[in-house]
Design brief:
Blueprint: E1 2-9, H1 13-24, E2 30-32, E3 50-51, E4 62-63, H2 64-77, E5 81-83, E6 89-91, E7 97-101, E8 104-113, E9 117-119, H3 127-130, E10 135-136, H4 139-142, E11 150-154, H5 158-167, E12 172-176, H6 186-193, E13 198-201, E14 204-211, E15 217-224, E16 230-234, E17 237-240, E18 244-246, E19 285-287, H7 299-320
Parallel strand pairs: 1-2, 1-8, 2-5, 8-19, 10-17, 11-12, 11-17, 12-13
Antiparallel strand pairs: 3-4, 6-7, 7-8, 9-18, 14-15, 15-16
The protein binds NADPH dihydro-nicotinamide-adenine-dinucleotide phosphate (NDP).
NADPH dihydro-nicotinamide-adenine-dinucleotide phosphate binds at residues 120, 122, 154-160, 162, 178-179, 183, 205, 242-243, 294.
Length: 321
């Protein structure tokens, strides 16, 4: 058995920032850097190229993997320990909390959950490797790479409407959706429909990606869901907007979740104040980053909430002594 004061699960911007703050507070956090969802340690930013909107990196931004390596090193400099493994099971029913990696048991007085979320993909073979190579999952992050270019947005929900509308700042958008009806709210759909830079391609289910000779994505091959006809739709880049999946399977039955699977935090989870905070429904377990945020989903907001979780954990631990 391995005993710790604080365990952090997840190592994206939220987990690494929580680790940095907890480490500087002398809590020697133990970080499980795997995601429990098969993704790489470091989270979604490991799948991106340049990040131009994380403050502090003028002159072209910083590569996602480099930013994550720096965040991790900064936490290690202050005493955080990282293990690149996925947590297999947790038991938050009593303190100390229990966390298993396969058969090995770890315990902690406080746990910070930062397991993030993943973009829903089309499940086309090799898709994961195309992310940031003409295939994107975040318009706010990558739209600016498509100035005066053409883009496909796939999806029919609010995210697709919002991202398609946003991307028209840069170029023309072809919104491809598999039905004629939309899951999106009327307001957002109407706003997108009024935008002359959005073209609508309906009843089309993507089958595979079209690739340039250098292996980057330049469109999709899709099947008309009414006629069965297969056609090619070309563009400079493709944005997937078919939803996100929070990495919360590990916490089912242990932490309160919204209907969409995201963790409930703050006052709604029984936290100490109406002011936003990282308390979950179990006292001593805190959550930060995309695992509890389906609205902003940015590296900087995740990092900010990681800081909040570490401060909440530190103060809560002090109150227990
Ligand atoms: P949704 O689940 O609402 O929509 C996903 C869309 O992707 C659907 O149109 C769905 O099609 C389509 N889709 C799913 N899987 C596939 C697939 N394999 N192939 C092709 N198409 C697929 O997700 P969103 O991310 O849009 O929204 C999530 C939540 O966040 C919602 O509650 C939404 O209201 C909210 N939100 C709110 C915003 C705001 O208010 N500003 C902005 C963005 C999101 P189909 O309809 O056929 O199932």
């Amino acid at each position: 058995m391995s005993e710790h004061k604080v365990i952090v699960i997840g190592s994206g911007p939220a987990g690494d920032t929580a680790a940095l703050y907890a480490a500087r507070a002398g809590l020697k956090p133990h970080v499980f850097a795997g995601f429990g969802a098969g993704g790489p340690p470091g989270g979604q930013l490991m799948l991106t190229t340049e990040i131009e909107n994380f403050p502090g990196f003028p002159g072209g931004g910083i590569a996602g993997p480099e930013l994550m390596a720096r965040m991790r090193q900064q936490a290690i400099d202050f005493g955080a320990e990282f293990e690149d493994v996925d947590v297999s099971k947790v038991d938050f029913s009593e303190r100390p909390f229990k966390v298993w990696v396969d058969d090995k048991l770890y315990t902690a007085e406080a746990v910070i959950v930062a397991t993030g979320a993943r973009s829903r993909l089309l499940n086309i073979p090799g898709e994961q490797k195309l992310i940031s190579r003409g295939l994107h999952t975040c318009a706010t992050c990558d739209g600016a790479f498509y100035r005066n270019k053409s883009m496909i947005v796939i999806g029919g929900g609010d995210t697709a409407m919002e991202e398609a509308t946003f991307l028209t700042r840069f170029g023309d958008v072809n919104l491809v959706h598999r039905r004629e009806e939309f899951r999106a709210s009327t307001t957002m759909l109407e706003r997108a429909k009024k935008n002359p830079k959005i073209k609508w391609t309906l009843n089309e289910q993507p089958l595979e990606y079209l690739l340039r000779e250098n292996g980057t994505v330049c469109g999709i091959k899709s099947k008309n869901t009414k006629t069965g006809e297969v056609s090619e739709i070309k563009a400079d880049g493709v944005f997937l907007a078919i939803g996100h999946i929070p990495n919360t399977d590990l916490f089912k039955g242990q932490l309160k979740m919204h209907d969409n699977g995201y963790l409930v935090t703050g006052a709604a989870a029984g936290g100490p104040s109406e002011h936003p905070n990282s308390y979950t429904s179990v006292k001593g377990v805190f959550a930060c980053g995309d695992v509890q945020d389906h609205t902003y989903r940015q590296a900087i907001t995740a990092a900010g909430s990681g800081c909040m979780a570490a401060i909440d954990a530190e103060r809560w631990l002090a109150e227990q002594e």
